[in-house]
Predict the structure.
Amino acid sequence: MTFTRILAALFALSTIGLGATAAPAAAQGDKVFGTIACTSQEGVRFCPGSTATRVKSHDGVPIDLNVTLPASGDGPFPLVILVHGWGGKKGGLAESKPWAERGYAVLYGTSRGFGDSCGSPASRAADPAGCAAGWIRLDDTRYEVRDVQHLAGLLVDEGWVEPQKIGIQGCSYGGGVSVALGLLRDRVMLPDGSYAPWTSPAGAPMKLAASAPCIPWTDLVYSLVPNGRHLDYTLSGERESRDPSGVMKESFVTGLYGLGSASGYYSPAGADPDANLTGWYTRIQAGEPYDGDPLITDIKDEIWSHHSGVSIPMDRTPAPMLISNGATDDLFPVDEAVRLYNLIGARRPEAEVAMLHFDYGHQRGQNKPEDTAYLRERTAAWFEYYVKGVGDAAPPSDVRAIRQTCPKATSSGPVLIADSWVALHPGEVRLLAPDAKSFNSSGGSPGIGQAIDPIAGPGACATTASADQSGVATYRFPASTGDGYTLAGSTTVIGDFTLTGGPGQVAGRLWDVAPDGGPQTLVARGVYRLTGNGRQVFQLHPNTYTFAAGHVAKLELLAKDEPYSRPSNAAASVAVANLDARLPVAEVPGGQVGVPTAVVVPEGRTLAPGVGQAVSVPLPTNSGSSTPTPTATATPTPFVPTAPVATPAPKPAVAPSTRPGRVKLTIRYRRRARGACGGLRIAVQGAGTRALKAITATAAGRRLGRDGAGPFRILVAAKAMSRRTRSVRIVLDRKSGRDVTITRRLRRCR
């Protein structure tokens, strides 16, 4: 297989398709857009477009597309917009049929600059005037995003689609469109960057009902050239990803550029400074110095302003959004979702946002069928309620995570469910290492780097030798004990860094080392642009991963993560002292697991919603190290949720009438004499309990109780709890064999 074909298979991710259901026969003779004929195929009406029937977009660029309609009826129907991945093209009947069987119209076009939307020479020759500026614009909100808005509006004007019952779902490149449209909601971005109401060409007001971005980016600057300034417990600022300039994900960016060049249409040199992909790639690949270069500034500002969803003003409530990223996806990792989740939570707390993260997506993702089927189910339920308006209760806006397990044939195990990102990791495993260590540009094994490269390596379960490497700072946590512990978030690295030479970077890798110094598996990685000396903090990309008993979590700090990231042009060495490494874990405090320490926040940054105590540190300068200064912040009051919690099922999406029942988890304090607080009363109720065998409650590593016969209730005596008990974990033991784990913080008893 050629390199181009390999890249196409890797990057042309499209949508998370649904399972099929039966549908009645269809009529013949319908047309969409006036020229595309529809025929009955496999129980739905399929309307395939071609080069000859392309539809002009808002600026005259011809777009190749397909439409699929339910088996019968004149509409208007609710609409699902599907968007393909980088280097891909419109999907066919197989991708759209499951949605049409559920009563949706489906719009699936080829993004401008790819395929027959001016991407191929033949398609440009068929309409030279229309394709004159039909090049790839890198999911520009003013062009690619507006394309799907315009095409949906045409279907509204033809009477096929309801103007405010529209959902969008796409992966990777399509995920970027899904994020942007979810934030625009009822607006379009005009070519000058201003906003206007989203209306159909005939003037019908339009509005997005729901969005389900799959492995998307939210800040394209950070996802391709990260500087390490994103922290999952602070709000991202406008300059966060741009100051300082970051470190290019070289193997990915090079592959993406090559694939786009082979399968699409880049703007000619000098034709369009806002879509100069060749010029941008050439300059970034040349390396440092970046900061102070006007071209680099222009590149960063353009990509952030017009190609990154987080730049869209939140002056209205975003569409209900189910956002999912891959914990082992080295291109668009989980940080991309958390960034947007935190911003929406702070600016529009009334918005409905749910997250689901697991081992899938771009490389090194394993994409286990059981896990992707679970995402399909969640997506179908999300659209049924928010787009169609079917169902008595909204799907829960919670945070869910599924573990990375190896080998691929191994089940991922239970789904972790929490009310928020912060609640997903109630405990912490911490390592303090005051002694100074150092690392340098020549350190690290090229063989290890190759084994864990997302493009050249074998994937998420690759193993290497675990011996310490020369020129690398290495830290080992104590071996895990008991049942082990589960990383459930972003590893935080804090230390006093001193840079010599440079420009510098710190590449962090977290490994799982097998007992007795056995082989190691990569768990998390991240890169930080080092611009000065002093106390500094950065994080590795989030993951959900269990360190089994006897296994050792090992942290490495290197001056490069080659070939994944681009090494700096100049040699550098870095000294680090007073290292503080923190693993956020799903277990509640007890034994090896401690209470989470106050987070370290660079000066000027704002905490994300739900984050408790913090310590402020000055931004690094070239003047040396700094001393942290405590900042007084309020600790949020723990609470007991009573909202319904969906019972997950690892099977393909099903029609609403056959979706699994729901359960309601309630945790109350029991009262002693004179109203004093006693133990806890835990109850799980609802139709979904029919799928349960038992429930188990634990706190601080101790079992509080188990009930193996419905109705499922656990009474916890006061003596079984300590005054420091702040959260409990409930395991729902399902008959299907896939447990669900829910962690809940406790309200103070009053």
